Amino acid sequence: MARGDEGRRSGRVTIREVAEDAGVSVAAVSKVLRDAYGVSDALRAKVRASMDKLGYRPLASARGMRGQTYTLGLVLPDLRNPFFADIMTGVNNALERTQYQVMMGISSSSSKLETGVVESMIDRQMDGIILIGSTESRESLNTIAEKKPLVTIGHHDPSAEDFDTVNNNDQQGALLAVRHMVAAGYSKIAMLSLQGEPSSILAEREMGYRRGMIEAGLGGTINIASATQVMRDVQFAARRLLQGPRRPDAIFCWTDFIALEVISVATELGLRVPEDVGIVGYDNTMYCDFAQNSLTSIDQSGELLGLQATRLVIERINGRTAVEHFVVPPRLVARRSTSR
Amino acid sequence: MARGDEGRRSGRVTIREVAEDAGVSVAAVSKVLRDAYGVSDALRAKVRASMDKLGYRPLASARGMRGQTYTLGLVLPDLRNPFFADIMTGVNNALERTQYQVMMGISSSSSKLETGVVESMIDRQMDGIILIGSTESRESLNTIAEKKPLVTIGHHDPSAEDFDTVNNNDQQGALLAVRHMVAAGYSKIAMLSLQGEPSSILAEREMGYRRGMIEAGLGGTINIASATQVMRDVQFAARRLLQGPRRPDAIFCWTDFIALEVISVATELGLRVPEDVGIVGYDNTMYCDFAQNSLTSIDQSGELLGLQATRLVIERINGRTAVEHFVVPPRLVARRSTSR
DNA sequence: TGAAAAACGTAGAACGATACACGTAGAACA
DNA sequence: TGTTCTACGTGTATCGTTCTACGTTTTTCA
Fold first, then answer.
1. What's the CATH code of the domain at B209?
2. Which of A97, A210, A280, A300 is the most buried (most CB within 10 A)?
3. Boundary-marking domain end, from A10, A25, A58
4. What DSSP element (H or E) covers A167?
């Protein structure tokens, strides 16, 4: 209702009122707001005092009309994986002393939905966009980067020119996992990957797995299964692996909660972990650490990834055009699921 | 940089261009956009065609200046608890066929940060706000509700007049948990609650626990411990409970992942679950269902909560002023952690 | 002391969409 | 044929902020 809306909006202090209260021009207040050049300390103090006194808060819509909204868009694939909480912690730390805010959107690991979310973020004038675990093509990403500063986390494209990337070295992470399993005495090592729209992280992890297997002289038993994120699919794939003719004695899973489900299936089939089958996950989320789970996993420093991505996107907003690709080394955290 | 920004913005199709292309007035296009009264089918079709042809997308900032932004703000306490994914699913389902989008913010279970996030959402002209697990006072919530349509999830205040609430019956949930434990043969039942800013959900769950204990004639052994969400605190509290003089033979935990940590601590202390100590969680998140966790929990239909909250906030946006309080009954899901 | 440069302040035109107040064509009715 | 409705379409002021272009004051330096 127009009337209700009017009532709701009224009471909001505008830049004009602040200017009047401080006895300066509207533009001067705007300069203080934006930390722009050409403001004396005295004037700044006067304006700040008025803003505090009146409880002034700039309206993002109005700012967006000509300038920035001071809002960053963060797109994540889903809310079920607690790994993203680590990234978010890093993002928030990076934003601590700035006037930027984050708004999150969920792509549900679907590139169609992801496109929708990103477009809606562009419509809402996000100053920059951080895309986690994107499944979009280089061209799509370039199209986005044309419109807004863009940084991806978990998307390998070291030759991308128009947007920055932040990654852990997924290939090395998978390699660490395989080496660890080999060292623990496992030899028939399978990998459980993600089925669906191709993702560069998965490609890297699969490549690392292959390299690890070949390096250990196990090239002949390379065995990559895959399943969607739906639990029924995961169970089905795990059963097929564990009941098939080439039953593996260890499984490297692309992410932790898949690994936990695989442990469940193995237990139901009467297999002991780690004696009969070793399991390794990825992301080292908090659930790995519970005594009853105790899952060996690869840590990729989510907090650092979030921090760096935020730094990069703000640099882009401030005018950097040279591309930057940040990579952090992974680290294996051994737990009971591979300790035989 | 101004130049870069200009380049970024250029190329965006405005309502004026659509109007010109369709050979109608700007206001007519606006009406089509808003499904407003006074547009013939022929005109609507013509305008829609032009919008598609030119790839027009309305700019939220500009819309926000006078009308709506068609954006809903959703504030959640943290990203670690997969329960919120269920709520989000419900929200997205409810928004499926509308032109609304959701933007999420994180309050980190701190009422100071929550205030900041909510204010920033008001600055960004969210049409309505859904607050999950708020720790704010009635007055603060009323202040928000004065400015924007507000619905809370997980905040009990059945006499609130200015905003709607959506809840499961937490008191009954806790009661179900205690009854289940008593029926399973446990008698020294403790509760592990959340330490920190007082929350009405916790108050309800504690009350349900008390009622259940008294009902079973165990009023004399009521024992409520509490810990923050930090894992070290949880471990400390769990150890103190399990090593203390009045060692309980069952613990009801306020949320699942706390329960999982308590199982870990119990295991480390050489106690068997469920034989020596029974454990019940709350929320029935996916991690309960893993064979090695197998945690008995209370299900509160997160998806339904999200759906209803979204329905209510949109009704408010469309002018409803009468308050509505929605409550869904909880359901106990028994698993191995209490089956002795 | 004077000229040039630096440091500030100001007015007012954008930005894109909305919604109000009007204007008008056509239908319905007598 | 004239009158009254209804169902639309149109022009434009307006929202709150940014930012350019310009004007004024102060500082610097030879």
1. 3.40.50.2300
2. A280
3. A58
4. strand A164-168
